[in-house]
């Protein structure tokens, strides 16, 4: 079977499914305080000099590693390592795992890095991994991630009530364990779905917490012990997260002593880069607005790079509100998406119809995109006998001005073909919760870049929690199972091409646009590499970054 990412974020959403989940450049509060102004300052034996300030526009809401959206994933990537980390070439860098190996593609032996420690000096071991998975699979613990591809769990990715055995986990010794999958998986697929998503809990800190109390435990908002490059110091809601260098870090104490993640409206990023109040914009959750591209590119104190248009902004269509595919197709034909790219994005974007950007390795280039054709839209609505007096609620997350303006254009397009549209603008957390409950007619989200196609397209499997469109197709379900089990790359690609074509025809979603993303770093911040066309893996080497004011 497969692992399906239930968040944005986180996503994560992040995924960003991240969280999967969540939305690209959602702004935080309109006011920000000066981090550190209260006189509190972190200290560490590792690191040196001036603090580094990173601009982020999505509000951080939790540090619960089981329930992170895109902003949470980025912040936690500095404090909490995964087994492996995806790099800009879509390969995998070892982190907490020294190696991941298999001889049969169903039993994966994972050897931990013996140098890895928690920030309080306790070793990171297989006991922490087992404890984390016991909590994660307990029915009383809320999780936005899902692990249905391993043995011994039900379709919700949980142990049955009263089940104590972790059927998918075998502890070999303190630094070695085996994960067992229901069906064969290609090694990189396993690394993507398992190795890059899971962050771990310290057993020695949380072992006396009952599963039913875990999500609301104070640790989830105040993670006093971490295993990443940085330690948590302070969280000021809608203002900043303060971190200090982890002198116990297994890759060496970070060069930069302190990091502040500053939350602000996207429109403030350019000004704060120019004044030096921030030195880096965070990937995915700190994107510079397109209207500021030229201004930032001309700043003498900043280096810029452009990312591929890999993160489509997706309109989700509630299939229970619109059960007839002809109506959903009419919505697609009614939208003047090229106008959005030309006018709002100044040409810095691309059109796709589905969840994968044109540069995604699994993108189906054979799909014919829905063009702007209002007359075709009207004809389809007539064929479907759609009641034009029905009000359609279009729920739009606030904070990203381009997305809000795009929604306004789409709303007018839909009205022009006779649809009655009511736009409701809400903050992202509220939009996200309503989407999960299918309490909307149309909405927009950005799930971020996810390499494994089953983790993206699997969101359309019948009954999964992050199936925002409430879509159901027996054929798609069967193909998703085949794709998850297929090990031969060419055959796997063909399966996911079919899935994309079916989703294109049924239209549970339609991408509005995929924007090219600008990233910026101060010239006196050395990231150990340039700003590449992909910022995937940007923080993998954060301990090696240097900042010289």
UniProtKB/TrEMBL annotation:
<dbReference type="GO" id="GO:1904680">
    <property type="term" value="F:peptide transmembrane transporter activity"/>
</dbReference>
<dbReference type="GO" id="GO:0042597">
    <property type="term" value="C:periplasmic space"/>
</dbReference>
<dbReference type="InterPro" id="IPR000914">
    <property type="entry name" value="SBP_5_dom"/>
</dbReference>
<dbReference type="GO" id="GO:0015833">
    <property type="term" value="P:peptide transport"/>
</dbReference>
<feature type="domain" description="Solute-binding protein family 5">
    <location>
        <begin position="93"/>
        <end position="462"/>
    </location>
</feature>
<feature type="signal peptide">
    <location>
        <begin position="1"/>
        <end position="22"/>
    </location>
</feature>
<dbReference type="InterPro" id="IPR030678">
    <property type="entry name" value="Peptide/Ni-bd"/>
</dbReference>
<dbReference type="GO" id="GO:0043190">
    <property type="term" value="C:ATP-binding cassette (ABC) transporter complex"/>
</dbReference>
<dbReference type="InterPro" id="IPR039424">
    <property type="entry name" value="SBP_5"/>
</dbReference>
<keyword id="KW-0732">Signal</keyword>
<dbReference type="Pfam" id="PF00496">
    <property type="entry name" value="SBP_bac_5"/>
</dbReference>
<protein>
    <submittedName>
        <fullName>Peptide/nickel transport system substrate-binding protein</fullName>
    </submittedName>
</protein>
